[in-house]
Every structure is written in structure tokens, then in C-alpha cells.
Amino acid sequence: MKNKKSQELFERAQKLIPGGVNSPVRAFKSVGGTPLFITRGEGSRMYDADGNALIDYIGSWGPHLYGHNPPFIKEALLKALEDGTSFGAPTEIEVKMAELICDLVPSVEMVRMVNSGTEATMSAIRVARGFTGKEKIIKFEGCYHGHGDFFLIKAGSGALTFGVPTSPGVTKGTAADTLLAEFNNIESVKKIISQNKGEIAALILEPIVGNMGTVRANDDFIKELRDLCSEEKIVLIFDEVMTGFRVAAGGAQEILGVKPDMTTFGKIIGGGLPVGAYGGKREIMEMVSPVGPVYQAGTLSGNPLAMNAGYAALSHIKNNPDIYKDLESKSSRLANGIMNAVKSTGKNFQLNRVGSMMTLFFTEEPVFDFKTAIKSDTELFGKFFHSMLKRGVYLPPAQFEALFVSTAHSDDEIDATIKAAEESLKEIL
């Protein structure tokens, strides 16, 4: 592949932007090499500064359900631009968006718009603490909820002890209020609760994880978690920033058949623009200012550009429910093709998929939590990534990320991706 212009841009960027990127995974650090600088996207493809055309399976990390630059979202944005980009005052489109989200996700009775997934998760935790009057929270190994201080925690001497900070700048005091459990292990949750009786405000998780690769919560685990939180008066928060409207119209909670107390959103509800939201039960959400005492604000929250784009995206879902059948067909075709390619090499690498999200793990053991995910051969994944890239297929540049299929991916492109995977696996093995 040609990458002279991308190399030049990366050299310029590193002089002025930490690591040359504005979000770490973009730097290709875990796979090596120079990141490609993208100039435009259309349908299932992206085009970089050197003119390379790439079949894209990142989709801006999930929101491009319909591929890049779909006409109906572009039209909504152009209309919004004509009327004005920001007012710092209420608009009708915010009300219409709230109505649509609450209609599509039954567990959400009230919703507040913000500008990112991180804002959404941080705000949800604050509201849960205000509602319960308690301070501690439980999160799970391998679940990512943005870069808020109390989320950047790992286990200390063991998975069930108080956490310690994993990023400089996070205080030990903040870390002490975050308790770490093992995903898909209900006993680890019960132990934490028994050791911190009456002190836990909220439990937050990705019900279908996308940030240690794609890992689905087991049915028994998620149902027991719901019952446990209800019994202990702990606010159950589903982080659906990635899965909301991606895996189903009602998100992961529709697939799993479990209603959380609160849900956080991002990605798709802005049609690809910066956006986030948190919502849930009315009695909890009425704790939020100006109705209640829990303060949260934002000048650009619910801005017309993001709301118009998001309304177009969610309306398309509501008016075209068969898109999920289309996505399932395309995604199963891709997953089956990749697994056939893996088997032809004599390997038994694991592929986890839920709807249009999937991850090929370079390990031969089943992946169901953080500890099993990190057994993957990341060096081999890096070789696979670059081998696919030179064949015109752009995968997430990290083993522990999900890839996303869009309605814009054609059968021919999926078949081309499968062929590239066959050739790449033979080459690296």
C-alpha cells in the first residue's frame, strides 16, 4: 500500500498532538506501523490520504450502521446547518429525540442528552449515587466506560480487592470507591456485595462487551445480576454506548431480555456526530437538575446538528425494522467465512459474535471474560491486521476491539474480506 502522505501527516501530528492522535488506539501502537489518515468515507469504504480504498469494519467504532455518509443523514445535517448549529436553548428536535429513544428502549422513561459516551457514564454514576445516597460502585474487568477517573481502575492484589488506579492522575481515594468484579462470574459479585453491605450505589457493565473484544453476558449471569441488584437496592446500569441500536432496536437489553435501571448511549444516536445520553426510570432521572439536586450541564448537549442526525438515524431504524435481519445475514456470512478460513489452517481460533459485532480472538480457548480474552496472541493479531490491510480491508487496529458490519457492506465485499482472511491467515501462519 502507498502510505507516503500518511507518514508525512503522522510526523507532523506527533510534533503537536500527543502520540500524533486524539484517541490512543488510532496510533496503531498495539499492531505497529503508521496509522492511515482518512480523507473521506462513502458506503462501506474509506479512502486515505494516499488514495487507498479500504473496506471498513470500524465504522467509527460502531455508529455507522448504514455505512459512511448515508444520504438521509446528510440531508438532515444540511437542513440543521441552514437553521443554525447551536443556540444554548431548548429546541423541538431534542423533544422528538427523547420521545424516540423512550419509544425504542422500554426501560428508558426519561433521558438526558450529553456530548459523549464518557459524559453519559460519568453522569449516570453521579445520579445513581445521588439517588441511593451511597458512594461505592462495582465495575467489571475488561468493561470500558470511558475515561472518567472512577472507571480507570484495575484489581490490586486480587480481582475482589479495592481497586488501584491504572492511569496517573487518578487518585487512590477515587480508586477505593470502585470495586472490581469478574465478568460472567456472579459469585465474584456476591462476594463484593457481602463485603460492602449497604455501601454500593451502582453496578455498571457492558451487557455485550466490545472493549475486550466481543463478549456476551451469559443468560444466567445477567438475570441473576438483575435480581441481585433489585434485592440490594443497587442501581443496575447498562453501558450501551456501543451496543445501543447496534445489536437490536432495543439494544443489548432487548437481546438479553433484562431491563436495567439506567442505560447510557452514544454512537448511533448522533448519526456519527459527537453525542451521548443517559436515561432510565423516572424516579431516578428526576434526581437530575433542575428537577432534582444532582447537577449536570452542557452548552452543546442536545445540539441541533447531533440531534437532527440522530433523529434521522433512529427514525430509519424504527421505519425499517428489517435492517437487523439484513445485518444478521451479512454478519453471519462474514463470521462463517472467517471461521472456515481459520479451520482450513488447522487452528481453532475463537470468533465471538452478537449481531453485527464480532471479534476473532487469536486463542484456541473459549473467550468469556477478561482473563480468557488476554490469552490471545496479540503479536499474531498484529500480523493479521497488516496482512488484511494490504489487501484493502481495514479492521480495528487492536485485538481487544470489536469489528462492525454495516448495511452498506455488499455480499461481494464480504466475500472479498473472507478471501483476504484466507490469504492472510496462510501468510502469517
Notes on the protein architecture:
β6 and β7 form a beta hairpin. The chain has a seven-stranded mixed beta sheet, sandwiched between helices. The chain is globular, with a radius of gyration of 21 Å. 38% of the residues lie in helices and 17% in strands. It is built from 14 helices and 18 strands. 50% of the residues are buried. The longest helix has 22 residues. By secondary structure, it is α/β, with parallel strands linked by helices.
Instruction: Quote the distance from N terminus to C terminus.
Output: 21 Å
The major pleated sheet works out as: 7 strands, mixed
Helical proportion, percent range: 25-40%
The averaged pLDDT comes out at 94
Going by helix content, strand content and strand pairing, the class is alpha/beta
- Placed side by side, the strands forming the largest sheet appear as 4-14-13-12-9-5-8
Strand content: 15-25%
Tell how many strands the DSSP assignment holds: 18
Low-confidence stretches: 155-164
Radius of gyration: 21 Å
- The helix count comes to 14
Form type: globular
Keywords:
alpha/beta, 38% helix, single chain, 7-stranded mixed β-sheet, 429 residues, 4-stranded mixed β-sheet, 14 helices, globular
